[in-house]
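User: quick one
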Amino acid sequence: MNTLGNKLKVTVFGQSHGHSIGCVVDGLPAGFRPDMEQLAAFMARRAPGRSSLATQRKETDIPEILSGMVEGTLCGAPLCAVIKNSDHNSADYAALKDIPRPSHADFTARMKYGESCDLRGGGAFSGRLTAPLCLAGGIALQILEQRGIRIGAHIAQVGNILDRTPDFAAIDTAALHRLSEKALPVFDNTAILAMTQRIENAAQDGDSVGGMIRCFALGLPAGIGEPMFGGVENRLAAALFGIPAVRGVSFGDGFDAAAMRGSEHNDPFLVKDGAIVTQTNHAGGVLGGITTGMPLVVNVALKPTPSITREQNSVNLSTMENTTISIHGRHDPCIVPRAVPVVEAVTALTLLDMLLEDNTWS
Ligand SMILES: Cc1cc2nc3c(=O)[nH]c(=O)nc-3n(C[C@H](O)[C@H](O)[C@H](O)COP(=O)(O)O)c2cc1C
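Assistant: Done. Structure below.
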C-alpha cells in the first residue's frame, strides 16, 4: 500500500491538491545528524518549476519536520515531515472529473474507490508524492554515504536518444558525483542537447516522451540479500515499481542478456588487491538475489507522461458516452529528469532497509 520497508519503514501520505503531503519514517538510526542543506539540494533536483523541461507548477518543497529530531539530530522516534501544497489549480481538473485521462490512474482509482476518490492533480497517484520519498531517501543516502556506500543515477535514454553506457565493472564515486551536479545527468555531454530537443519537440507537439534511468550503488559488501523471493532484485523491483510511471526494472545487462551467449554474459572472477572481484559486471552486482560486491546496476524504464494536450479518445463515466479529452494543466513533458533523484531515493531506502536487516551490518 503506502508503506515501504521492514526495519526502515516509510509511509507516504497526501494528495496532489490537498493541504499537504508528507511521510513518516520509522527505524532511522538515532544519533545521526542529517546535513539539511545537502538534503534540500537533493530535493531541489526533483522539485517542479525549475526548468523549461518540467511542469511549471512552482512548489518550494520545504519540509516541516514535526517529530523525530531534536536540535538537528535524529532521536529514534518516528520522523514525521510535511510539505505544504502551495501552487495547485484544481480548476484545471474540474472538467476531467468524469473523463479519465488515458494512461493515468483516474479510471482505475474511480473503479476502486468510487466517486469519492480525489482525482485533482492525480490525487494520491500524483508524481508529487515522490517529494516526501526524496526527503526520506535523501536521509538514507546520507546514512549510506557515511558508511562508504554511494548511490547515483544517469539518464540512460530519452525517447530514442541514448547516453553512453559506462563499464559496469569500472564505475566510480567520482563519476557519480559529477552526474549529481548536472541538470541532465548523463556521461556523454553531447547527449544533453539531443535529449533536450527531444523533450521540447514533444512538448511543442502537445505530446510527451519516456526514457530510462540507470542507477548505481557502489561500496555494497558481498553477501547482502536473500535467495528466491527476498533477493535484492525482488526488493528493489517491488519498491521501484511504486514510483508512478515506472514500466520496467532490470539489472545489469537486463533484457539484452536474452540475446547473449554465456561466454559473453558471464562475469569471470579475479583476485585483485586481495579481494575477489569480477572482470566484467554484466550481472549488475547481484547473483542469486545476493550482492557480489561489484557495483549494483539497476535500469528503470519510465513511460511518456500520460497528460498531454493533444486530443485523445476517452469516455464520460457519468453519461457512459464516448468523448474526447485534451489536458491543459501544467505537466512534465518528460518525467525522466525529475525522476532521477526519486530512483536514487527509493534505491537508498531499499538498500538501507536490507542492510539494517542483515546481521553482519551494524
Ligand atoms: C516525478 C514525477 C512527475 C510526474 N509528473 C506527471 C505529470 O506532470 N503529468 C502526468 O500525467 N503524470 C505525471 N507523472 C506520472 C503519473 O503520476 C503516473 O503515470 C500515474 O500516476 C499512473 O501511474 P502508473 O504510470 O505507474 O501506472 C509523474 C510521475 C513522476 C514520478
